[in-house]
Amino acid sequence: MHAAYVFRVEARFETAPGVSVTPETVETVVEVTADPPGEGEWLFFRDVLWRGEVGDERHARDLAESWLSVPADRVSFSELKLDQEYREALEAEIASNPEPFDGDSPRDVLHRHLGSSIRTVDS
């Protein structure tokens, strides 16, 4: 069972006096492993994403900076890449604990937060 949130991040290099870099910014793809449903930060999708976009740009930049240890100028969400086993476990966890989601169905919850940005891959 595996899943990862995929983001595009524009990062900026800050240099010491007398040092220069070219380019000063780079765009990279960042994959963040998703916690198993019901464990740790499994509600990351609910807390960070809305309709397939980052819900709070400043918060997303702070997260990216903590992942990369460099300043982040822009962050955009690309997709939740998951295998079928993770998807089934995620939907089951949402169904068994509907309170944080106003009692909505797993399908509605995932669509509301991730839009169409879910990609199921082979394990």
List keywords for this structure.
alpha+beta; 4 helices; 32% strand
Compose a concise summary of this entry:
The protein has 123 residues and is α+β, with helices and mostly antiparallel strands. The protein is 32% helix and 32% strand.
Task: Outline the structure in words.
This protein is of the alpha+beta class and 123 residues long. The protein has one domain. The protein contains four helices and six strands; from the N terminus they run E-E-H-E-E-H-E-H-H-E. It has helices spanning 44-48, 57-68, 84-96, 106-114, and strands at 3-12, 25-33, 49-50, 53-54, 72-83, 118-121. The strands form two sheets. It has a four-stranded mixed β-sheet with strand order 2-1-5-6. A two-stranded antiparallel ribbon has the order 3-4. The mean pLDDT is 95.
Tell me the strand percentage band: 25-35%
Strand order of the largest sheet: 2-1-5-6
Rg from Cα: 16 Å
Count up the domains: 1
Shape summary: elongated
Task: Give the H and E element order.
Answer: EEHEEHEHHE
How many helices? The count is 4
Biggest sheet statistics: 4 strands, mixed
Distance between the termini: 7 Å
Total beta strands: 6
Overall structural class, as computed from helix and strand content, comes to: alpha+beta
Low-confidence stretches: none
Classify the helix fraction into a percent range: 25-40%
Overall pLDDT score? 95
Helix and strand arrangement:
Elements lengths: L2 E10 L12 E9 L10 H5 E2 L2 E2 L2 H12 L3 E12 H13 L9 H9 L3 E4 L2
Parallel strand pairs: 5-6
Antiparallel strand pairs: 1-2, 1-5, 3-4
Helix pairs in contact: 3-4
